[in-house]
From TrEMBL:
It comes from the Bacteria. The lineage of its organism: Bacteria, Bacillati, Bacillota, Bacilli, Bacillales. This is NTP pyrophosphohydrolase MazG putative catalytic core domain-containing protein.
Amino acid sequence: MKDVQNFLKDFQKEMNWEITDKNYQESRSSMLNNYMLLTTEVGEVAEEFRSIFTRTSELAEENNISEEQAFKLAKNMHKENVGKELSDCIAYIMKFANYLEIDLNESFYSKMKEVKMRRNKDAG
Ligand SMILES: [Mg+2]
């Protein structure tokens, strides 16, 4: 994760896609704009999932195969596009982490540990 975060830091700088940091109003505006872009990308993931479900129905009907078989085929057909949309999401998430100087690698594992502890507490 560290590699990806560092790569994106350089990439976003190179492309001039960083969250601006000149003054509060500009940073606020840039953060809100990037937040909208992130939610747009999350929506694009949903669109890909919808396409998988539509394709599943079409494949099952056209080829007279089970939904399970059709679903497996549809997932494979959309795998590349889902990967692209998930990558777009990661890019925006990392952009926020970089802007706020968050070590996402550290934050991620710490949060997962917290979730695990909470889950174990709930189960007990
Ligand atoms: Mg996208």
